[in-house]
Design brief:
With 180 residues, the protein is mainly beta. Helices cover 0% and strands 48% of the residues.
Length: 180
């Protein structure tokens, strides 16, 4: 309130650190080498670590597989994704391929892409052979054999016969324990 006398106002500014923005995106490299966004139903998590921070974050369809950090102080950080079955993880920091998600935040923006490469699933071939005088031979024409594959969420029957040359190749099995 001015009452006609001379007044003085002092403005005190505090210098704040002005660091860059860190953007973390999730991508998947297919078996054919294409880099694409993850499937909508997929959910991934990573930790952000530094001397002062250890926080877990989620990348999903809800956040468009992207997290933005605009309040980090300058310093050393590491992004580390939780392991994903059937995939390997690499990082691309400002366009450069890296084995780890370590970075130094200064005043420049940093873009980190967490890229999972889909590993080819191993194939399992099941052959039927008959031991005849110490030699392994294919069964006789017309002979038919069945086997069951049992595992977590898997209970499948298969047929070995002349049409498939007494061999079945299973190409879509996830790494886990199975019984035949």
């Amino acid at each position: 309130v001015m009452d006609g006398a001379n007044e003085e106002v002092t403005i005190i500014n505090q210098m704040m650190g002005c660091s860059g923005v860190v953007t973390v995106r999730k991508l998947v490299k297919t078996l054919h080498g294409r880099i694409v966004p993850p499937c909508a139903q997929d959910v991934y998590s990573f930790t952000l670590d530094s001397r002062c921070i250890h926080e877990c974050y989620t990348l999903s369809e809800k956040n468009n597989f992207c997290v933005l950090f605009d309040d980090l102080e300058e310093g050393e950080y590491e992004i580390k994704e939780a392991p994903t079955a059937g995939m390997t993880t690499r990082y691309r920091i400002n366009g450069k391929e890296c084995d780890s998600g370590q970075f130094t935040l200064r005043r420049e923006d940093i873009e980190i892409e967490i890229i999972n490469t889909v590993l080819p699933l191993p194939k399992l071939s099941v052959h039927k052979r008959i031991r005849n005088h110490g030699k392994l031979e294919k069964p006789q024409c017309g002979e038919v054999f069945h086997f069951q594959l049992i595992g977590r969420d898997v209970h499948e029957m298969y047929c070995l016969n002349q049409e498939n040359d007494w061999c079945v190749t299973l190409e879509d099995l996830r790494p886990r324990h199975y019984e035949i």
